[in-house]
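Sample entry (650 residues):
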Amino acid sequence: MKTKTTFIAALAAAVLTAGVGTAVILNKANPVNADTPVSIGTLAQLKTYFDGAGTNCGNSATLTADIDLNGAYVSGMAGEFTATFNGNGHKLYNGAVGATTSLFNIIGASGIVKNLTYDVTVTGAVVRPLSYLNNGTIQDCTAVIRTGAASVNNVAAYAYLAGSGAYTNLYTDWVVNHSGADWLCSVYRDQSSTKVTGSYYTKNGSQASSIANFQADGMTESADVNYLNPSSSSLSTTISGTAAQVIEAFGATNTSVEAVSANTGVATVSGTSITGYTVTGVAAGSTTVTFMVVSARGTFSVATPVTVVASAPVTAVSVAASGSVYEGKTLALTATLTGTEYSSIAWSSDAESHATVVGSGTSATVTGVAAGTANITVSVVSTSGTFTGTCAVTVNASVYLPVYLFVSKTTHDTTDYWSQAYLFAYGDLGDNTPITMTKVQENGKDVILRAANTTNGGAIDTWQVWLAKIDITGKTISYSNTYFQVNNSSSGRWGSGYQVTSSSGAVVFLGYKAADAYAKASYTPADVASGLTYCASSIYSSSWRDVNSSICYLASDAAYANVVTNGYEQLATGPKAFVDIVDDSTTAYTATLGETIAMLQAKHAAGSGTAYNAGILAGTDYLPWILVSVAGIVAVGGFFFLLKKKHARA
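Predicted structure, serialized as tokens:
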């Protein structure tokens, strides 16, 4: 049993790549250098400052503008921050943050972060966008945390570990529009602090009332307005024309709301409410509209530049000359007009079998249908004539990552197969939205694999085969933050799952009973080809397993998720090739132990040197030690093996 114990420990270590509370504190000693303050006004400058290393741990910084993060995040700062980061009333917005990513790793005792707003969308588990540990001061900041997927959990708005630092005059605005949010923590996730003062949180979104295990962390819930987010950074219209500004306000209670134009001779304002206002053009020129809300939390304002242009008939129209889109994805097109007045504008596609288009005014959305090309044309009619512009659109084929799932049922277990299987992809692969898996079939029949279980009196284990394709179209993936979990319920997943390590996809074996499966076998990782990746499911405490009949429950201490095999698609290019490897005929999709033994002894004896070499390592009635190589991938020896069953039919 010593070998088994060592093996399980190795499995658990391999799986726990993103577990709850897992983090590596890069607390290297920083060289003592003089503080060299920097100003940051662009995304490029922000990325230089947060360079993923400890380069600027001792250098202060001040934001000089709001910065759009373009749907991503920066690399963060390793080491211990000992200087001052002053947001200067500006914000970082449109950010997307995944597991274990922070601006700061550790805020040291002399470190200060102040006057900063960050508006980000979070996915996955163990998310802490500002810092991992705070031993310094965080003050006068606002964190807007939006859930970007179902089952987001263990999110800490300011620090994952509370540390010994102070938290003063902070706001956390939660925007929860996905189900399954769990452990949303308004200040910190772990440890505790008595140094949270003058701080408030709001709950917003359609699922705000269903958050599980919400932590206020010393904050007080508030209904007062504390944050304003405009939908447009600028507005433009024509003389007598209108344009609307939509405002997202967190907290609804206020004492006054107003919007004021700096030059009413250029544009006037009407319809002002907490949700926005409308401007009307008066004369050509520029002005600024200031939207201001006063609440018990203070005075909050947003200034929006407004441009009014003179009216004139359209005399020309242009659109991007070319563009590309993937199947099932969309491409936004905008027509640029010379002139402002027209009687009609229409968009069309000359090949709707490849791409369709839906337009509204000068904006249009192109949807890729099938690989090929299509010309998208915009036509504008004015008193000066009819004018057109055309964009040549190339539609590229979609890209999918295959994941095969084997769910077992043994001859000694009456448990039914799953009636349905779901896959949850997260990290770089997706946002946890459940993907409905489909049964692999051939000739209209479900593919069922039978494999000998030589540790239990020669029983035959049976496995139903499911397939899901993760859409990675247009994504750049490094295969370092690529995870998925499977479940027989669509209601969600918990915790970390299995990692996909290459574009070839993955194969998961899920077993039920220790008496009929892996627990009685023992071998070392050296016995298995390096192309295999292992996972063990006994990594969660027992109180957390029984969650929607998830893997954490089904694969308990007495049963292990046996093998996760990366690189399966190197052997097969589709379900037909897959069936050709693991199945024995086109009419009956099973193979018996007797057939398996006959094939081993008659067709693939040890040392035969064939592509399907089988080494018989021990000799009992049921050959308890068998290691079979299938086209370069070893299907684990000791109790399970995959064989090309058609070779049994001499």
